[in-house]
Amino acid sequence: MLSERLLSAAVRALGGKYFRLEATEGLTELPDPEPGVRYMLYMHVPFCEVLCPYCSFNRFPFSEDRAKAYFRSMREEMRMLADKGYTFYEVYVGGGTPTVDMDELAKTIGLARELFPTIGDVSSETNPNHLVPGYLEKLSSLVQRLSVGVQSFDDGLLKRMARYGKYGSSQQILERIQAVSDARLFKSLNVDMIFNFPGQTPEMIDHDIACVKASGATQTTFYPLMVSPASRASIEKTVGHVTYDNEAKFYHQIYDSFCGGDHPEFRPSSCYTFSREEGQMIDEYVVNYEQYPAIGSGGISYLNGSLYINTFSLRDYRDRIARGDMSVMARTDFPKRDEMRYRFMMGLFGLEIDKREWRERFGCSVARGLPVEYAFMKANGAFDRDDDEKLTLTPKGRYLMVVMMRQFFIGVNSLRDQARAALPEDEARLVFDGIEAGRSDARCPMASGAAAASAVPASQA
Ligand code: SF4
Questions:
Q1: Which of 31, 111, 273, 279 is the most buried (most CB within 10 A)?
Q2: How far, CA to CA in Å, does 271 sit from each of 356, 392, 401, 413, 437?
Q3: Which residues pair with 275 in a beta bridge?
Q4: For residue range 259-304, what is the model confidence (pLDDT) as tens digits?
Q5: Cis-peptide into 96, omega within 30 deg
Q6: E-strand spans in 311-445?
Q7: Ligand 1 within 6 A of 57 CB?
Q8: Quick one: which H or E segment has residue 151?
């Protein structure tokens, strides 16, 4: 599709301008909060039990000592935000695997609630092997929204991604999620999926959709496959050659299956997140929160028109916090036009732009502020409602936003690639060795005695 290619190239070019990792001289802290802004706190936990070869996130192999020291530093960094006067309404814990050390996670979320009593919901990511009693008992008292990384319910694909041995077969994963869902342990239970894998067929997509529906999860996020330059070789070696030829077709299949017809079971919460109920927090918190400080190694903050990037090195992270600095090491300022582009993309990805709010904020209409972007989307039939109040999307418009977000996150991933390339030698070796260990799909946490039991804590079954 020509519009898909043009859009990919445009967002790639914009990303190339901003997703460059250059340390900013003298930068030791995030800015103070602005009055009247609603902030969300992002915390990054960069540890996984086994490193997946294709993954672009900032993550290191888990060791208890490393993780305990890291969590201690992150709590210190959280106190720095409190001292600055920040207030938060929601928390998102991402990774890595945030649930890799439950005691430390509990202490950290506990401190967040103590320092910021306005916090409502806490959201955390996890992997299917942690949907077991020991973890779930603690998790259900800590977080209201749990997001489980599943990626696919196809055993062949799970094997090719080296996830089958680590996280179990699709049937095992499905049964675990069903058990968690039946026990109603969380206000919101999200299942993360990926579509457009090489070799994926419409029948495989249908199977994934059916499994998600059968799982009882309250929400699902279907990400388009995102391949950064550095992870392309690894992905092509494991899952095959990546093209975008089927992406639009698969996307419409997924959207229509969840949200089509007269009585859909799900409603769109964003262009690729579908929820059984409205008003649920989503993985793309950037849609609901315009500004979010991030703590932890590899965190990225967006505050008052600037992007801030935290150090990706664990040692540098520890040293910065120990000397009383925050972990932020680079800052890029968005000129007003690019801030508009960012809001245009996030607003439409979240399904609509409120034109009155836009005018109040930027002092001009969307069409005047971003004439090229607006004209491109309009010419491609992307807008459904386009009146004085709102801008909303047609099915084609929703797909074009998926393309924009795919390219945007590929840009973020390439930033992570640069950060990884700049790691000190011993930390780079740690990641490399962890990836080599992860290439074999032999380790199966689900084969352990604990995992073989019911996924639901006995007290709540
Ligand atoms: S994809 Fe694998 S390595 Fe990456 S964060 Fe998830 S579990 Fe960790």
A1: 273
A2: 22, 11, 7, 20, 36
A3: 219, 267
A4: 999 999 999 999 999 999 876 666 666 667 889 999 999 999 999 9
A5: yes
A6: 328-333, 352-354, 383-386, 390-393
A7: yes
A8: strand 145-151
CA distances in angstroms from 414 to 42, 93, 218, 329, 400, listed in the order given: 20, 22, 32, 17, 21
Q: DSSP code of 458?
A: G
How many other CB atoms are found less than 10 A from the CB of residue 277?
12
CB neighbours of residue 323 within 10 Å: 8
Confidence band, pLDDT 50/70/90 cuts, at residue 163: confident
* Ligand 1 midpoint to CA 55 (Å): 6
The widest CA-to-CA distance across the chain, in whole angstroms, is 62
Inter-CA distances, 350 with 31, 110, 287, 354, 389, Å: 27, 30, 6, 11, 16
Report the C-alpha gap between 200 and 210 in whole angstroms: 15
For residues 295 and 74, the answer to whether their CB atoms sit within 8 Å is: yes
Residue 456 above 60 pLDDT? no
Structure tokens at 316: 């540098």
**How far, in Å, is the centroid of ligand 1 from the Cα of 293?**
23
Name the E strands within 314-423: 328-333, 352-354, 383-386, 390-393
| DSSP 8-state symbol, 459 | G
Indicate the length of the chain as a whole number.
461
User: How many CB atoms lie under 10 A from the CB of residue 54?
Assistant: 22
- Domains of the chain (ranges plus CATH)? 24-292+424-452 (3.80.30.20)
Whether the Cβ atoms of residue 268 and residue 259 lie closer than 8 Å to each other:
yes
Structure token digits, residue 314: 């664990």
CA 256, CA 388: separation in Å to the nearest integer?
A: 29
* Total Cβ atoms within 10 A of residue 85: 9
**What is the sign of the dihedral through the CA atoms of 176, 146, 154 and 209?**
positive
The 3-state DSSP class for residue 217 equals coil
Paired tokens of 392:
């909303």
Mean pLDDT across the chain, nearest whole number?
Answer: 88
Cα separation of 381 and 377, whole Å?
Answer: 6
Does the CB atom of residue 56 touch ligand 1 within 6 A? no
Q: Which of 44, 49, 97, 147 has most ligand 1 atoms within 8 Å of CB, for mutation?
A: 97
